[in-house]
From TrEMBL, chains A, B:
It is an enzyme of class 1 (oxidoreductase). This is Histidinol dehydrogenase. One of its GO terms (biological process) is L-histidine biosynthetic process. Keywords: Amino-acid biosynthesis, Histidine biosynthesis, Metal-binding, NAD, Oxidoreductase, Zinc. PROSITE patterns: HISOL_DEHYDROGENASE. Catalyzes the sequential NAD-dependent oxidations of L-histidinol to L-histidinaldehyde and then to L-histidine. Binds 1 zinc ion per subunit. Substrate binds at S236, Q258, H261, H327, D360, E414, H419. Its EC number is 1.1.1.23. CDD domains: Histidinol_dh. Zn(2+) binds at Q258, H261, D360, H419. The active site is at E326 (proton acceptor), H327 (proton acceptor).
Length: 429, 429
């Protein structure tokens, strides 16, 4: 854990180093991923079968690549009642929040008589990557699938690796609840390539979202443009801004709720009280010992945890803007006044009773958020990631007569004679 | 020019080939671009100077890299009055259209007592690439810069190569009119790298937009994630859906207005009348001969032009959706009925009096549009490309008591004990 004090002479330099370190893997998988993508593009299902045998240790029979809807429904029906109710509450609240994001079409006629507008529509097909192993989270499936369905996507395709053939029943249950249309037993860069280019078995989609390891992320990056993708994602992070009136145990728990995600996750505390900072640091030690996820949480906190003691919390917004963190908690009596000054953050959790974990599951806003300072320019997942906008223009004779000559002047200045001509012939010029 | 008939037995195959061919360069510049980016990242302005000397044939003096605002204002003042008025009309109409795109913030409290919402804000800095040479279009500068300024971007940075030191006065004039804050004499992948990582001279930006050659496009693609970028762009294209009641000369002019952009631009006509198709093809020949841009337009039309004769224009929407073209003109008496069935298109031009060129300059909607079938999943440039959304959550004691237990159940099911713990400690569980 790194401890900084904003009044120390070396602070600016140390903080700049912190801002710069994105903790992202240098693992160079670009060439391997390129090979896999090309292979799947050219050989389709045959290549999928080979990579699945190699990486997931099993090769589904020809009729076993797709997990049937009944298996998903059965997994859902088999859930313990409290877990089923929790998933249903989460789904309902996510659906409600995202429904209000649906954009409005525009269609109006301006004073020149020209009709102008924009019409939104959903993509035809969306692909959702769901990791196997450590990060196989049903909540993540809901957070990706529900916005797609709310957007109006007709075909929602889930791909997920099933190592040794084993599917995660919670993921299947969530797929049923979210209304996934297809679920395929395939993962890795090969699954992303199959979604982008299609194979004989799996039809291509238009947008691919969802978390994954370095190979999956690189495959999405390479296929950006062939399909739409959500933002490049790095390790998770939280910034907690807290005064000394908080219970140190609560703040320690919040810091650890990020740390347990990943050894390279990052938890940062900004506080204006050095004694409180000590108490939180102590409580982190106490709490870690109790966690089944202690090993990961301890690695993250030891290597990437940060406590910054400031003279006044008025310093916090500038630091928060530089960090542009995925999650920002503001645990003070008047969180809004600090929030008003924070421009760059994925999602903000206001007040002492809003631990970040409530946003991971049941609050409603999306938990897929920009990491690694990308909140400077990008947003959490929304229905807009599954939609696109078509603008339109309809000119009357009078409207074209009014604005056409200006277009002709500009086209000529740009040396585009045929552009000018297409207006001139209509105006009889 | 390729001529197809939808009732021919080989049509489906030929049309599928057409849809598949994105006419995009296979030029493999990835490795060279990677080298340039790394070089600029490590050596900054020194690397910029070397690449500029090499590619643009001049090396600005240390105090001459930035084109001063006065030079832009002088270029604007020196415009001929009709051209200045045309630029001003275009800027005003683009501004009006994009202002109405500004998204609304959300802030509400749901029945559980939880406050939820989303707040939009502009990125701090946007970089706009403006090509030198053939594609140095002032209209393009307006179409990129005005949405950024409408979004509220405080720092708008233009980069443009000035081969042999010569800047395009129209581009400088447009930069003045659009309110660009900085204009730098630098182009190519090196300019994009400088915008993304910053140098001693040029501070970094958060989003980079604007057209460019294969090197610029590849640099943007490689830096996606370090900064935000607009969509990957390929050669321009138009699909004209026209019945026999049109003047063949008008339709020929429209097809050529795309063809003159680029030898690999593509113009496609769908009509339900073979004789009309012949007339348009003849008029294309007549019109080309008159164009100063004849060489480019002829290459495009000969190599990539397509005429598809259908039995009925009712077939057109399905073909248009498969092509997902950047521009679609519908020149019929009732264009709306076809438009209602078109789901995938960048921008649609309705009726006989709406040539695409009016949208390039003065209609108001953005002319930066998805190419190469990307209208299936992406949209034209808008203020949203220069903004991002921060979601927020504020729970009360009662709200956390109401939804917290469900979050705990899900966290435990996912094996994330610290997530559960951060809620349990607050609820005294």
């Amino acid at each position: 854990m790194l401890r900084l004090k904003s009044s120390d002479p070396g602070f600016a330099k140390a903080f700049a180093r912190l801002v710069k370190d994105r903790r992202e893997s240098d693992e160079n998988v670009a060439r391997d991923v390129q090979t896999i993508i090309e292979d799947v593009r050219l050989r389709g299902d045959e290549a999928l079968a080979e990579y699945t045998a190699k990486f997931d240790g099993h090769a589904p029979a020809d009729d076993d690549w797709r997990i049937p809807p009944e298996a998903c429904r059965e997994a859902f029906d088999a859930l313990k009642p409290d877990l089923r109710a929790a998933l249903e509450l989460a789904a309902q609240r996510i659906r409600d929040y995202h429904r209000a994001q649906l954009p409005e079409n525009r269609d109006y006629t301006d004073e020149s008589g020209m009709r102008l507008g924009a019409r939104w529509s959903a993509v035809d097909g969306a692909g959702l990557y769901v990791p196997g192993g450590r990060a196989a989270y049903p909540s993540s499936l809901l957070m990706n699938a529900i916005p797609a369905k709310v957007a109006g996507v007709a075909r929602l395709v889930v791909v997920t690796p099933t190592p040794k053939g084993e599917a995660n029943p919670l993921v299947l249950a969530a797929a049923h609840l979210a209304g996934a249309d297809e679920v395929w037993r395939v993962g890795g860069a090969q699954a992303v390539a199959a979604l982008a280019y299609g194979t004989a078995r799996i039809k291509p989609v238009d947008v691919i979202t969802g978390p994954g390891n370095a190979w999956v992320a690189e495959a999405k990056r390479q296929l950006f443009g062939v399909v739409g993708i959500d933002m490049v994602a790095g390790p998770s992070e939280i910034l907690v801004i807290a005064d000394a009136k908080n219970d140190p145990q609560w703040i320690a728990a919040d810091l650890l709720s990020q740390a347990e995600h990943d050894p390279v996750a990052q938890s940062i505390l900004i506080t204006d009280d050095a004694a409180f900072a000590d108490q939180v640091a102590d409580m982190v030690g106490v709490e870690i010992a109790m966690l089944p996820t202690a090993k990961v949480a301890k690695a993250s906190w030891d290597d990437y945890g940060v406590i910054i003691v400031v003279d006044s919390l008025d310093e916090a917004p500038a630091l928060a803007n530089a960090l542009a963190a995925e999650h920002v908690e503001i645990a003070t009596d008047d969180p809004q006044s600090l929030f008003d000054k924070i421009r760059h953050a994925g999602s903000v959790f206001l007040g002492r009773m809003t631990p970040e974990a409530v946003g991971d599951y049941v609050a409603g806003p999306n938990h897929v958020l920009p990491t690694g300072r990308r909140a400077r320019f990008s947003s959490g997942l929304s229905v807009l990631d599954f939609m696109k906008r078509t603008s339109f223009i309809e000119a009357t004779d009078a409207a074209l007569a009014a604005v056409g000559p200006a277009a002709i002047a500009l086209a000529e200045a740009e040396g585009l004679a045929a552009h000018a001509r297409s207006i001139e012939v209509r105006l009889g010029l």
